[in-house]
Every structure is written in C-alpha cells, then in structure tokens.
C-alpha cells in the first residue's frame, strides 16, 4: 500500500547535484557557472581549480558531487560526462544596517544563492 515513488525528473543518462545557501550573490555565482557550462567534466574541474574566484571552490565541490552521483547511483561513465546545465537561483537575503554620517544608516544586503549542476553522458563521436 504505500505511496508511489515519484518518477525520475532527469533522463537516464543524466545526474545532478545541488549546492544550497552559498554566501555569494547570484550574479557573481552565475559568472563561475558560465565558465563550466557545456564543457567536458575534466576541463570544467581544471577551470574551477585554477579560477581566482572565491566561490569556485564550492562550485567545484558541487560538480564533484554530481560526478559521484552519476558514477555511483546511475552507473554512468565518468570519461564521457559533460556539464549539461549549471543554473543559479536566488536564496535568502540577510539585511544589515551600517551607521553613516549625521546619524543616518544605510542598508547592507548579504545575498545567498543556490546552484544546480546537471551532468550528462554523451557518446564519443568517432
């Protein structure tokens, strides 16, 4: 009797990983996500390893998680994986106040964001 399992949202040759609540603005995170979109996984990992952006370390962790999901959960070949999607979403925004001159205050916004990475196995063209 129990609840039916929800059907898989991704195709059989895809796997994904999500990193939530990264302490960076979505605009800055999207720059790093654009760096790896559509590339082979090995190239994307190398690009993230040598990127000078601080958040590249967290994006690399998420990409490695997607690769591990593909290998262990879905039996995909790691050498044939590409980064099919890397999309960024807005998270919460912490609001803080900073004192300014003449007794005023100004608002400082500290945004969070999420990143979803989908890797897909493609056959090598001979």
TrEMBL record:
* Keyword entries, A-Z: Ribonucleoprotein, Ribosomal protein, RNA-binding, rRNA-binding
Q: Which domain of life is it from?
A: Bacteria
GO-annotated cellular components: cytosolic large ribosomal subunit
**InterPro entries in the record:** Ribosomal_uL22 (IPR001063), Ribosomal_uL22_bac/chlpt-type (IPR005727), Ribosomal_uL22_bac/org-type (IPR047867), Ribosomal_uL22_CS (IPR018260), Ribosomal_uL22_sf (IPR036394)
Q: What molecular functions are annotated in GO for this chain?
A: rRNA binding; structural constituent of ribosome
One of the GO biological process terms: translation
- Cite the Pfam families for this sequence: Ribosomal_L22 (PF00237)
Its biological purpose is as follows: This protein binds specifically to 23S rRNA; its binding is stimulated by other ribosomal proteins, e.g., L4, L17, and L20. It is important during the early stages of 50S assembly. It makes multiple contacts with different domains of the 23S rRNA in the assembled 50S subunit and ribosome. The globular domain of the protein is located near the polypeptide exit tunnel on the outside of the subunit, while an extended beta-hairpin is found that lines the wall of the exit tunnel in the center of the 70S ribosome.
Q: How the protein assembles, per its UniProt entry?
A: Part of the 50S ribosomal subunit.
Q: Which family does it belong to?
A: Belongs to the universal ribosomal protein uL22 family.
Protein name, UniProt field = Large ribosomal subunit protein uL22
State the organism of origin: Azorhizobium caulinodans (strain ATCC 43989 / DSM 5975 / JCM 20966 / LMG 6465 / NBRC 14845 / NCIMB 13405 / ORS 571)
């Amino acid at each position: 009797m129990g609840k039916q399992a929800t059907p898989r949202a991704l195709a059989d040759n895809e796997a994904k990983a999500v990193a939530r609540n990264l302490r960076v603005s979505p605009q800055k995170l999207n720059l790093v996500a654009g760096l790896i979109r559509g590339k082979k996984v090995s190239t994307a990992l190398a690009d993230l390893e040598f990127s000078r952006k601080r958040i590249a370390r967290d994006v690399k962790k998420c990409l490695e998680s997607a690769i591990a999901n593909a290998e262990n959960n879905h039996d995909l070949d790691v050498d044939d994986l590409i980064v099919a999607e890397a999309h960024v979403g807005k998270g919460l925004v912490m609001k803080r106040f900073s004192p300014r001159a003449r007794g005023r205050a100004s608002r400082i916004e500290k945004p969070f964001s999420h990143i979803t990475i989908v890797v897909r196995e493609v056959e090598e063209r001979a």
